[in-house]
Amino acid sequence: MLQNSYYTGNKYIKVVIPEKAGKRSLMFIIQNRTGCRIKPGMTSYMFNRLSNNLTGESTMGITVYVTRDFEHMSEVAAGVVIKKIIETHKGKDSAVLGLATGNTPTGLYKLLAQAANDGQFDSGRIRSFNLDEYVGLPGDNAQQRVIHPESYAYFMIQEFFGLLQRKFIETRLPCGALIDQKTLIRELRGNKQDWTFQGTDAGKSIVIKAKPASAYLAWIRKDILDGYARKIKAAGGIDLQIIGVGGRGHVAFHEAGIPFKGSTVLLVRLDRDTIANAVQDGHFPTLGDSPNYAVSMGAELVYQAKTVLLMANGERKVDAVTRSLLGDVTPEVPISYGRQYAAKGGDLIYVIDRIAGRELLAARKQLKVKGVNIKDVSAR
Questions:
Q1: Per-residue pLDDT at 11
Q2: Does residue 135 share a domain with residue 34?
Q3: Fewer Cβ within 10 Å of end Cβ, the chain: N or C?
Q4: Do residues 151 and 215 share a domain?
Q5: What is the pTM of this model?
Q6: b vs e for 214-231, b when ≥16 Cβ sit within 10 Å of the residue's Cβ?
Q7: Are 372 and 247 found together in one domain?
Q8: What total of structural domains would you count in the chain?
Q9: Three-class SS state of 295
Q10: CA angle, 225 then 230 then 236, to 5°
Q11: Which domain holds residue 73?
């Protein structure tokens, strides 16, 4: 006997099935054990899911939109987000969005602000939680660090929040700016028994023990890390999480090599390449000015959202996007955990341009067997 979760058109359910069940008996089992009527066009997909599980093959429910370019990607993503917000508002008073920073979502945010200002949805019924924030931005105090031009709080005001005529109910970012980097480094060096590194690569998660001797580290764990997770939970969880993807497949500052399990809200020591790139890209004048740490949602928390929308464009994202759906599920490519999320019933949507998606387009048949639906809308 096998037990697994299968899609029934509007929800996932657990079904126990005999190992030698044929097509007709599978359909009978689904209808009678779930109470869900099988709609036209649904049967083939459901049978494929069940058949693949009987043969030990992994199936997912993932939709990939392949678009022309950055502008078109932003338009398609905006359509997805607006639809999800409207659907969510039909069922409850407020929608909860998870938001990302970086260049990738900037076009999306401008379109969402325009749509909200035009009355397509009510931005006054939205709460938001951002993925991450730096620790160690230049500034003598938390206020100066928050308003620093390279802070993600400043970015969100410039690129999205400041464009809205009707403001969100609330907007939250991890409180990385409250942490003084010099104090953090001193406490880590002086209390090595209070924490451990997790991760196989240069960027590592700093896991603070439950009862550290350092009062400063105890405060970071309780109020900054666990506190942010508690606020998300108190809001009812995230309805739609928007993410970008790093060149090595990382999401936010959940760097490649950091384990998935237990990765709710992380304190991360940044990869030296990440720090150097921030200087080379002109964000900070010197290595001494570039933050060495960050507070970030981990992949485990990201993939607890009801829907996850991943956006990617350009040559630098090809390998990460390809490996996330065609390679192994591995900490070396954190976004690959989206496949486990989708297999358990999560709604995972990729919106990517033709460059980032070229290898996926070439592997359409292989991906179809896995339950990945490629929608090439680039010609529209």
A1: 42
A2: no
A3: N
A4: yes
A5: 0.85
A6: bebbbbbbeebbeebbee
A7: yes
A8: 2
A9: strand
A10: 140
A11: 62-376
Which parts of the chain register pLDDT below 50? 1-17, 19, 23, 26, 29-30, 33-58
Residue with tokens 């969402």: 112
Q: Are residues 179 and 43 in the same domain?
A: no
Phi-psi domain of 305 (left: phi exceeds 0; alpha: psi -120 through 50; beta: other)? beta
| Residue-level pLDDT at 25 | 55
Taking residue 108's Cβ as centre, other Cβ atoms within 10 Å add up to: 25
C-alpha 270: how far from chain center: 19
Beta strands in the chain (DSSP E): 2-7, 12-17, 62-67, 95-99, 126-130, 132-135, 170-172, 195-198, 204-208, 240-243, 265-269, 293-297, 307-312, 347-353, 372-376
Q: Which two tokens stand for residue 348?
A: 């995972």
**Each residue of 71-85: b (16+ CB within 10 Å) or e?**
ebbbbbbbebbbebb
Given a contact cutoff of 8 angstroms between Cβ atoms, the answer to whether 304 and 343 are in contact is: no
Burial of 145 per CB tally in 10 Å (0-12, 13-18, 19+): buried
CA angle (105 as vertex; 108, 77 as ends), nearest 5? 45
* Segment 79-138, tens digit of pLDDT: 999 999 999 999 999 999 999 999 999 999 999 999 999 999 999 999 999 999 999 999
